[in-house]
Amino acid sequence: MIIKSPINLDLTISSGQTSQPPWICSDNTYSSAVSVDGKPAIFKVRQSGDYLDFNLEDENAISRLKYIFDLDFDLDKFYRYLDSHAELEGMSKFCRGLRLFLAPDPFECVISSICSANNSIKRWTKSVSQIKERWGNGVGDCYTFPQSNDLLKVYLDEEEEFNLSDISDISRCTNNLKNCGVGYRAPYMRKASELFSLEMDLSEIFSMSYEEAFETVLKVPGVGPKVADCILLYGFNFKEAFPSDVWIKRIVSHLYFDGKDISVAKVREFGMEEFGENAGYVQLYMFHYARMSGLMQKLK
């Protein structure tokens, strides 16, 4: 069925947002396993003009799809907002149809965002995809992300697997987190799994204020301000979050501070105050505008 809300599907899915790895693409159709009413279902979407063609007609599935691709967000209103600011004018032309790609499972976003820190998009998406394939629930060729209590049971590294399993040769110990290429982040993922299994209820974050949610997520080892904002934006749809790193710092400095050297913390504060409820989308569009317009090359 056609869902009449404009989107550039390929740009949205391949934009590197830390909510999840890109969905599997075959014959211009993107597929993923998404939990609907507690059961995994195969979601298949493809571009149809400016809209999405979705394989399911179940109302709950449609609601989940609309959430994942933020289809109720008014892009035309946002474009008018961009064009009303001289520094942002024209960004929509480079990023037309780009939407938030929100996590079907916020815990996946927590782990993905931890994995993305000081990492390339290619490497972290490969790692998270391997975690899903090894310990998630499979439906066809797609997998849901494992729940926190399931990931908690996964061996941390080959040494732990060797000591706690009946494998007699450590070189055969491959069923562990580090074998997925997550490196030093494995203990952070273990601790996050422990926290959200035994101490915190992830679902409660949806009802928190941004400030309370930010402080809550910062309690997770391996989560600093930038990763926390990524988790809140892509995992919980807090659109006032403004994830800031060295690239966003350079872009904001170029657009608003005459290229002066300002701190990442100052950029985050500026973005949230300047853009308010549009901060998350402005950050998303800024980054891709810089990539597509050639600005990023000039700022290196």
Computed Rg? 20 Å
Number of DSSP helical runs: 15
Q: Spell out the helices and strands N to C.
A: EHEEEEHHHHHEEHHHHHHHHH
User: β content, as a range?
Assistant: 5-15%
Relevant terms:
15 helices, five-stranded antiparallel β-sheet, single chain, alpha+beta, 47% helix, 300 residues, two-stranded antiparallel sheet, 7 strands
Describe it.
The strands form 2 sheets. A 5-stranded antiparallel sheet has the order 1-5-4-3-2. A two-stranded antiparallel ribbon has the order 6-7. The protein is 47% helix and 10% strand. The protein is globular and about 65 Å long. The protein is built from 15 helices and 7 strands. The longest helix is centred in the middle third of the chain and has 15 residues. By secondary structure, it is of the alpha+beta class. The N and C termini lie far apart (44 Å). Strand 2 and strand 3 form a beta hairpin.
